[in-house]
Amino acid sequence: MKIIRDDLHNIKISEKLSIALGTFDGIHIGHKKIIETAVEDAKKFRIKSAVVTFDKHPLELLSSNKQISIITNNKIKAKILENYGIDYLFFLTFSREFASIEPEKFLYLLINNLNSNIITCGYNYSFGKNGRGNVELLDIFQKEYHYKLNIVDKIMCFEKDVSSTEIRKEFIKGDIEEVNKLLGYNYFLIGTVEYGKGLAKQFGFPTANIIIEENNPLKNGVYISKTYVNNKGYDSISNIGYTPTLRSTSRVLETHIFNFDGNLYGKEIKIEFLKFLREEKKFDSVENLKQAIEIDRSNAIHYFKNSIYK
Ligand SMILES: Cc1cc2nc3c(=O)[nH]c(=O)nc-3n(C[C@H](O)[C@H](O)[C@H](O)COP(=O)(O)O)c2cc1C
Ligand SMILES: Nc1ncnc2c1ncn2[C@@H]1O[C@H](COP(=O)(O)OP(=O)(O)O)[C@@H](O)[C@H]1O
């Protein structure tokens, strides 16, 4: 998969492409269908497949209310998409100038610069200035530009709409199990283990710390998790937040890995979130914090014992 990060105006692709078009925040089961359709059609017509998305979420730039949370950063997006058999991944530069391009011009650039022969998008996809471009416009321009258009219908999961907005709501509630259902995989983060205060080891719960983005949607608190070190999965418990008892200056994800003893500093680890256990609390003493973590650990052990998830 070739990753191209550039302004759409600067790109010129000679190979014919079947493109999946969207913001794809979360790469949930609806997004999956769109991307798979684009890849299948690429195979069928013996052309190359591509995901066309932006270097930042359009709402990060355009939304008037407070910053929206981003479910999947670009690094993780690329990691997930590696498994889809895509030839190209485009992170098009999304600027205010780009957002003001008329939809017809955007479409022209997709055809002319990306050599798009097949376009696949979701039923409610909108694009171009003020989001005026939509599937009707894509349909009308098919005749002029001779591309094939695939519109993927709304996907439902247990009578619920699957959308990034709905998934963000579940994150706020801390319902990570519902998030995972709608995503179609266990939500995960990847990061490099950093040095912390060096205190946790002293009270029997060493924690591998990674910095977590302020706009990450996970609710602060304690989770049952699965942590992957060198692709091997370990049961674990993770805390996200500002550790009010011992005060951290930045938002941090701390993971205590069961049945593991080793040095993780500087290593990349992957943490999957399985169940929200409790909110993060300020304890009067380290002893009380330690007791709370003991309870978290027994809850997690109980969960893993009874879970089909291994
Ligand atoms: C499962 C778990 C639950 C935690 N819960 C809390 C909490 O409720 N409140 C809190 O202040 N810190 C909590 N922590 C964070 C500890 O305070 C943290 O491990 C400690 O700040 C040591 O940090 P260090 O790794 O930088 O030495 C929790 C950590 C773990 C692993
Ligand atoms: N079971 C474990 N879970 C998490 N980290 C562990 C474990 N065993 C050893 N470690 C190591 O210990 C470090 C955490 O110890 P800790 O006292 O919390 O230090 P720090 O404050 O620097 O994170 C981890 O970064 C990792 O290198």
Automatic annotation (TrEMBL):
Pathway: Cofactor biosynthesis; FAD biosynthesis; FAD from FMN: step 1/1; Cofactor biosynthesis; FMN biosynthesis; FMN from riboflavin (ATP route): step 1/1. It catalyses: FMN + ATP + H(+) = FAD + diphosphate; riboflavin + ATP = FMN + ADP + H(+). InterPro entries: FAD_synthase, Riboflavin_kinase, Riboflavin_kinase_bac, Riboflavin_kinase_bac/euk, Riboflavin_kinase_dom_sf, Rossmann-like_a/b/a_fold. One of its GO terms (molecular function) is ATP binding. Its EC number is 2.7.1.26, 2.7.7.2. It comes from the Bacteria. GO terms for biological process: FAD biosynthetic process; FMN biosynthetic process; riboflavin biosynthetic process. Keywords: ATP-binding, FAD, Flavoprotein, FMN, Kinase, Multifunctional enzyme, Nucleotide-binding, Nucleotidyltransferase, Transferase. Residues 182-305 form the Riboflavin kinase domain. Belongs to the ribF family. PANTHER family: RIBOFLAVIN KINASE (PTHR22749:SF6), RIBOFLAVIN KINASE/FMN ADENYLYLTRANSFERASE (PTHR22749). This is Riboflavin biosynthesis protein. It comes from Fervidicella metallireducens AeB. The lineage of its organism: Bacteria, Bacillati, Bacillota, Clostridia, Eubacteriales.
